[in-house]
Amino acid sequence: MASQEEREAFVTLATNDTYALGCLVLGSSLRRAGTTRQLAVMVTPGVSQSLRDQLSRVFNLVYDVDLLDSQDPTNLQLLGRPDLNVTFTKFHCWRLTQYDKAVFLDADTLVLQNVDELFNREELSAAPDAGWPDCFNSGVFVFKPSEQTYNAILQFALDQGSFDGGDQGLLNMFFRQWATEDISRHLPFIYNVVSQAFYSYLPAFKQFKNNVKIVHFIGATKPWHQPFNTSSGEVTPLPDSGHNAEFLQLWWTIFMEDVQQTLDPNLKTNNHKNNRMSMLTTSEGLIGQLATLKISRDQGQEGSASALSSGERKLNWEKGQIDYLGEDSFVNIQKKLEESLSKPAEPHKPATSPFSRRSPTEETAETAEPTKESKEPCE
Ligand code: UDP
Ligand code: MN
Description:
single chain, alpha/beta, six-stranded mixed sheet, disordered C terminus, binds uridine-5'-diphosphate
């Protein structure tokens, strides 16, 4: 009979290879923090065999989830609601009934200190969302796997939908008593610190920064989109990402030490032709490019060729699709800023607010294809 510790797990999710990278770093961070619990990752057909192999080195369980289970009438009804697809995938965590209790962590979270004490909490425990603290943030939550709850959530999704189009809006309505009923289900903010939040309250960040246990890199740009300087081994946060440089550096340190060498340089990330979730595409070859990164002193390429006109690029900026590793790289942005400073300023439209949550149905900066010339992230 499995011990109590074997019946409790941290659970995460990847629907493509890029998010799988996030899972690998997250899994490593949990191991480094000395967790005694199981690690499980849910993957869809969008994750390649190569990344699945890597995931199985870190996670005890790599669990396949497929949206299209046509035997299930509720699933069939959901097929008519593509907006709920991503939402639906995360909810599969309730089906992991081999565990008595579990903690879901988004793939864009990083564990800085052991958080095994979370298993003392009850369903549904979560930390307040920095944007609307009477809602919980669904990037970190304690739950109890149960087929019954899973079905009830799906039915709720069909009946009510989600007020923000994602899992967070739906879960907050499903577990609506969270806001008022039982304070023990409110996790302290240190269990889900949005990596940009402290810009609005810097003194608190300075005071409490060492208490942070889990960082969450919410928003359209993730740690793996940030330029990494291969000469110095340092990350340079993108101008509009708003992510804290120290936290990004922690992510990249784990990535370079534990993950990067294990990646297959020949891997072209799959383009989801057969993935009927058709959510977010990954950058073609991003994994292969990351796999060939080396810390060395002889780097220094910058700039890239771009097939897009400046009008198209502007439009992409406005949609949040930014060629961060190419034409819109930090170096080029800096040049443009310097040029603009010497002329009367034009109004600047940031791509996203630092606090904006990305709706899962929106495209992300992952569509910014890094070109060959820009494969060394800009310096
Ligand atoms: N996710 C995924 N593929 C996607 C989008 C999301 O696997 O294309 C998973 C992943 O675990 C991710 C979580 O769903 O961390 C929630 O999405 P995200 O973290 O991007 O949302 P945010 O926290 O920025 O609102
Ligand atoms: Mn997230």
